[in-house]
Amino acid sequence: SSDVCSSDLALKPGDHLNLKLFLHPKEDHLKILADVVWVDHSGAGLRFVAMEQEDVNKLESYLKGLSPKS
Question: Which residue, of 1, 6, 31, 67, has the fewest CB within 10 Å?
Answer without folding.
Answer: 1
